[in-house]
């Protein structure tokens, strides 16, 4: 990525003067597509997506590494994103941009495509199908990674199939991660939630500039997976963000996930102080927030990355870098924001994968290559890590084990534990959020990926089934890539085609069943019914696309109604026992005093 100057830029600036600053010019050259924005000219490159299965051979204009904000370095570190300063010359956007500073978990390194990382990382990538449809719909992807790792070109790193097949403009983006995006003093000195403000700045950039690429800023769908889906949900609940999109897709994540709970400004400040002390800031610098910020701003990036990745162990918390309830981006807790409404005009697809819990098992059991056998003893040991009481374990065992199952140490509890993890972390909060959205007036479509992969899984362990992140390879058309080191069965190409068709239909029309193209024949597959709180319809994402109803109703009722009531009653019993013990002790003490008095 670099900027070149030339005569063509002088001609273009003259054209700007004639058209006015608010106008844009788009030009497509056979080998060098270019776009003129209000901030400067951008040159990309042409690539081709071809598939016999999809009967398509289409060029895509690719612009990689366009800055959407000024580099957050020096005094801009730990400050909100600043608008890009216009440039002169041609910005060459044809190289993969660096990712933001991060530490990628060792078992996930194959998912991150960024060749390098640097603080100067606030870039986005635009993929435009050629010829570009008039007033094209836009899909903006927010990557996942626990808010601590990943980039706009993380797995599967090749968005060409989705843009070419779906006939939409696709945008992917970087945002600040971990300590750089979520460390805060809890106030304006180091403002909270900078990574989310980066995402919002990118959405604003798309709104202000996408017309130059042939897009319609009033036809924007934002979508994401895992922490990216949670982020999408947060933007849905934020009035300041909602102005930049009309539809959302949440894959395996939503704001009700307990994995992404808010922390208070005071807790954010405590974590910032611990961080500052570990990188060597003096006690005097810790006494004043502005001095603390100055110290952290001057600390070498590598030292911050190292300390930031170790903070979870030091603080004994699962997640350190979390969003802050800041009275700005998050003026209220999630459920209160849902109650406030104001987003009933947003269309929604929401769902998850049938066996999300296999990834949690993979981590809990220290990344075994082969599918583990989980006997009764191991089952109980792992369940205790979920903070489940003995009575809860007994109820859940009855709920999740198969009929005629013998409760002994020789049976395999793998499916039961995987189901428990899937429902408590994904299925039940997806169901609840879908219910809330439908109640608020949103048009909602729910899905579950039910197909077990016959080719290599996304996470590269062979027993993941329809596990965490498995949907990504279908959404982005990985089965149609030509340089894969493994075979893809035809059924998985078909499932990928289904995903791309349904997702992009939804982006164009708000209905996954309708493409909006009169030349495209109507599908003969079962119609994806709108979710209702009565029938609880959902689509099973497999080759024949059957419909389902009332996903895990009994299990989620137990998690969300039965167990909380029982916990409360057990707590009351403990309190009663404690009070009874105190009363008995007091009575015994009174008897002793009476006896002593009688003896006197």
Short recap of the structure:
With 600 residues, the protein is of the alpha/beta class.
Care to describe what's here?
It is built from 18 helices and 16 strands. The protein has 600 residues and is an alpha/beta fold. It has three domains: 314 residues, Alpha/Beta hydrolase fold, catalytic domain (Rossmann fold), CATH 3.40.50; 208 residues, Rossmann fold (3-Layer(aba) Sandwich); 49 residues. Strands 5-6-8-10-9-11-12-13-14-15-16 form an eleven-stranded mixed beta sheet, with helices on both faces. Strands 1-7-4-3-2 form a five-stranded mixed beta sheet, covered by helices on one side. Strand 5 and strand 6 form a beta hairpin. The longest helix has 47 residues.
Distance between the termini: 97 Å
Sum up the overall morphology in one term: globular
**Spans of at least 5 consecutive residues with low confidence:** 4-29
Structural class: alpha/beta
The largest pleated sheet is described as: 11 strands, mixed
Mean pLDDT, rounded to whole units? Answer: 88
CATH overall fold name of the largest domain = Rossmann fold
| Fraction of residues in β-strands | 15-25%
**Taking strands numbered 1, 2, ... along the chain, how are they ordered across the largest sheet?**
5-6-8-10-9-11-12-13-14-15-16
C-alpha Rg (nearest Å): 27 Å
CATH homologous superfamily designation of the largest domain: Alpha/Beta hydrolase fold, catalytic domain
**Briefly, what CATH class of the largest domain?**
Alpha Beta
Helix content: 25-40%
When the domains are counted, the total is 3
Q: Let me know the number of strands.
A: 16
């Amino acid at each position: 990525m670099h900027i070149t100057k030339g005569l063509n830029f002088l001609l273009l600036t003259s054209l700007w003067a004639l058209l006015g600053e608010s106008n844009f010019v788009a030009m497509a050259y056979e080998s060098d597509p270019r776009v003129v924005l209000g901030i400067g000219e951008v040159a990309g490159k042409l690539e081709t997506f071809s598939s016999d299965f999809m009967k398509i051979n289409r060029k895509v204009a690719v612009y990689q590494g366009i800055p959407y904000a000024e580099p957050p370095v020096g005094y801009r570190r730990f400050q909100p994103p600043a608008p890009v300063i216009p440039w002169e010359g041609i910005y060459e956007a044809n190289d993969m941009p660096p990712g933001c500073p991060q530490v990628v978990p060792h078992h996930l390194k194959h998912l991150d495509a960024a060749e390098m990382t640097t603080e100067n990382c606030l870039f986005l990538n635009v993929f435009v199908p050629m010829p570009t449809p008039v007033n094209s719909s836009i899909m903006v992807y927010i990557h996942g990674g626990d808010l601590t790792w990943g980039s706009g070109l993380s797995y599967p790193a090749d968005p060409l199939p989705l843009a070419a097949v779906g006939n939409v403009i696709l945008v992917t983006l970087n945002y600040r991660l971990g300590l750089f995006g979520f460390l805060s003093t809890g106030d304006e000195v180091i403002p909270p939630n900078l990574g989310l403000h980066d995402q919002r700045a990118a959405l604003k950039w798309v709104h202000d500039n996408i017309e130059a690429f042939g897009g319609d800023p009033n036809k924007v769908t934002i979508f994401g997976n895992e922490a990216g889906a949670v982020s999408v949900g947060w933007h849905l609940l934020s009035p300041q963000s909602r102005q930049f999109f009309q539809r959302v897709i949440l894959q395996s994540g939503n704001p009700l996930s307990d994995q992404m709970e808010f922390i208070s400004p005071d807790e954010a400040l405590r974590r910032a102080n611990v961080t500052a002390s570990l990188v060597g800031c003096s006690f005097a610098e810790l006494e004043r927030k502005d001095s603390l910020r100055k110290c952290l701003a001057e600390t070498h990036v590598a030292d911050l990355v190292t300390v930031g990745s170790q903070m979870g162990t030091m603080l004994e918390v699962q997640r350190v870098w979390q969003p802050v309830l800041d009275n700005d981006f998050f003026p209220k807790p999630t459920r209160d924001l849902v109650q406030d409404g104001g987003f009933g005009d947003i269309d929604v697809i929401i769902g998850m994968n049938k066996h999300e819990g296999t990834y949690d098992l993979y981590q809990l059991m220290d990344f075994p290559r082969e599918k583990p056998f989980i006997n009764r003893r191991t089952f109980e040991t792992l369940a205790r890590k979920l903070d489940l009481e003995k009575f809860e374990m007994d109820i859940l065992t009855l709920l999740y084990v198969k009929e005629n199952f013998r409760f002994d140490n020789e049976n395999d509890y793998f499916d039961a534990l995987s189901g428990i993890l899937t429902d408590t972390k994904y299925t039940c909060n997806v169901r609840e959020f879908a219910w809330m959205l439908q109640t608020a007036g949103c048009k909602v479509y729910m899905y579950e990926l039910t197909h077990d992969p016959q080719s290599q899984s996304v996470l590269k362990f062979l027993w993941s089934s329809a596990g965490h992140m498995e949907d990504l390879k279908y959404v982005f058309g990985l089965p149609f890539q030509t340089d894969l080191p493994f075979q893809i069965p035809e059924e998985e190409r078909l499932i990928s085609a289904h995903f791309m068709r349904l997702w992009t239909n939804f982006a164009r029309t708000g209905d996954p069943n309708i493409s909006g193209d009169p030349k495209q024949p109507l599908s003969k597959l079962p119609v994806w019914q709108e979710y209702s709180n009565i029938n609880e319809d959902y689509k099973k994402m497999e080759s024949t696309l059957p419909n389902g109803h009332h996903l895990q109703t009994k299990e989620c009722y137990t998690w969300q109604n039965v167990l909380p009531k029982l916990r409360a009653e057990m707590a009351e019993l403990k309190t009663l026992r404690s009070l009874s013990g105190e009363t008995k002790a007091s009575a015994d003490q009174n008897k002793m005093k009476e006896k002593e008095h009688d003896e006197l």
